[in-house]
Specification:
two-stranded antiparallel sheet; single chain; 9 helices; about 350 residues; Heat Shock Protein 90
């Protein structure tokens, strides 16, 4: 309550109001005029405002969820009686000081029990407000812990999915190298060098979960360059970032998609074809598409099933329902469209 300036001002205004109530009590029952009543009431209200802050610590030490009703009642009444009794003693002392220095004398003998009851009531109200505040703090802490748990869970899922991509890509690349070793040893050697360069570039990313799209398009281009060693002139590549290169995307997001474009598309075309990767940003959305020709009568190829499912899982973990991945095959064209929030890098 006392951590923010606005709350402190509100607390002071509340106790000025309580001081006014006490002054009206002294005017009506204590035989004082308003000047004398305010001289007595306002300093007493100010002093009792500090005493009532102890209600917050009582609320924290005896929470409603774990304390029995007997303990709560005994603690509340005990603290209220002790605080109000100390306040009444302070009021008598202050009345004596004012009588010596300002000629102000209040008849406390007649209203002592009224002031005592007033103090008990105010303290119990302070305790009730403190319990409400403590419950609010606990609720916020629980919500924060739940959000932190979701963030940690999402990060763990992203790391797991990313770890799944790396061995999958390496397995397929080694399989391609194996296919070239007998028919084209020079091509196999070049593919090994390109593969080493690709992984060297990937390692530069370190532990980054997201990278600029321009970097991701470059990595996709390197992968397609590796595949061009195997397919030669049959595989052509077109990559267009269209000014969306600064948007952040998960690293190696496009690699499984362009891999599918080659293995399920160009690989089955006698004349080969062009793999087109295009990205564009519109307002707060990022659109990325990968397209290639395909043979509708091609045999069904059995794989590890990582590909598109991994891409969907990573985007779902990162953006929830705001990201979509649609794969369509029509008119001998295979096309994957990704739509996701356009996340810009933070500027220093």
């Amino acid at each position: 309550m006392l951590e923010r300036r606005g709350r402190i001002l509100l607390y002071v205004a509340l106790w000025l109001f309580i001081g006014g109530l006490l002054a009206s009590l002294l005017v009506g029952q204590g035989g004082l005029d308003w000047r004398g009543a305010l001289l007595v009431a306002l300093p007493l209200a100010s002093a009792y405002s500090f005493v009532c802050t102890s209600a917050w610590y009582i609320a924290r030490s005896s929470p409603l969820a774990t304390s029995g009703p007997v303990r709560l009642l005994a603690t509340a009444l005990g603290a209220a009686f002790i605080s109000s009794g100390a306040w009444l003693a302070l009021a008598r002392g202050w009345n004596f000081v004012l009588g010596q220095w300002a000629g102000v004398h209040a008849s406390y003998g007649e209203i002592s029990w009224m002031i005592f009851g007033f103090g008990v009531l105010i303290y119990l109200l302070s305790l009730a407000v403190s319990y409400i505040g403590a419950a609010s703090v606990q609720a916020q802490a629980a919500e924060r812990r739940a959000l932190e748990g979701q963030v940690f869970s999402r990060e763990a899922e992203l790391r797991s999915l990313r770890a799944q991509i790396d061995p999958h890509f390496l397995f397929n690349s080694l399989h391609s190298i194996s296919a070239l070793t007998a028919a084209n040893p020079q091509g196999a050697r070049r593919m090994c060098l390109l593969l080493a360069e690709f992984f060297r570039e990937s390692l530069k990313l370190g532990a980054e979960e997201q990278i600029p799209l321009s970097r991701e398009l470059m990595l996709a281009g390197k992968y397609l360059e590796i595949e061009q060693v195997r397919y030669g002139d049959r595989l052509k590549v077109e990559i267009d970032g269209d000014g969306a290169g600064e948007c952040l995307v998960p690293s190696l997001l496009l690699q499984p998609i362009v891999e599918n474009a080659v293995t399920h598309g160009v690989a089955h075309m006698l004349d080969g074809g062009t793999v087109r990767v295009k990205a564009a940003r519109s307002s707060s959305r990022l659109h990325v598409s990968v397209e290639s020709p395909c043979d509708p009568d091609r045999p069904v190829r059995k794989g590890t099933g990582v590909g598109l499912s991994n891409v969907r899982s990573r985007l779902r973990a990162l953006h929830g329902s705001e990201a979509t991945v649609d794969a369509v095959e029509d008119n001998e064209r295979w096309r994957v469209e990704i739509t996701m929030p356009a996340v810009a890098p933070e500027r220093l």
